[in-house]
Write a structure and sequence with these properties.
single chain; four-stranded antiparallel β-sheet; Jelly Rolls; mainly beta; about 120 residues; 8 strands
């Protein structure tokens, strides 16, 4: 029986990815963070394929109007995603939006701490 040595860049045998056989690469985690000290963060989505965006957020204690805006701008235009009036506590929005490589990503917050996260396929 063969023994497999697993490394983070090696996918498990049950893991499939639509381009895995065409482009063996690694998925690199990326993140934007914004909070009441640094209310805006920007990045460019990189990699070789579309990225799936996830958002983790929590309103600041005592914030009267917490809010989050995520703006995605690429060659086809601009998409804006707003979230306001959410309850206290920690929240996660998984795969709420997608962005093409080269898209400009902007995270803006008011009375909130937020992390915009994604993985980029690199070779």
């Amino acid at each position: 029986m063969p023994w497999w040595m697993w490394y983070p860049a090696w996918p498990a045998p049950w893991h499939t990815h639509e381009h895995e056989h065409e482009h063996p690469g690694s998925h690199v985690p990326e993140e934007l963070t914004a909070n009441s000290t640094t209310t805006t963060a920007n990045a460019v989505a990189g990699g070789a394929e579309q990225v799936h965006l996830s958002l983790e957020y929590e309103a600041d204690s005592g914030a009267s109007s917490p809010g989050i805006t995520v703006t995605i701008t690429d060659s086809s235009g601009t998409a804006v995603w707003n979230l306001t009036g959410f309850p206290a506590g920690y929240h996660v929005k998984r795969d709420f939006a997608r962005a093409e490589p080269g898209a400009q990503l902007k995270l803006e917050v008011a009375g909130t701490t937020a992390h915009l996260r994604w993985f980029e396929l690199v070779f």
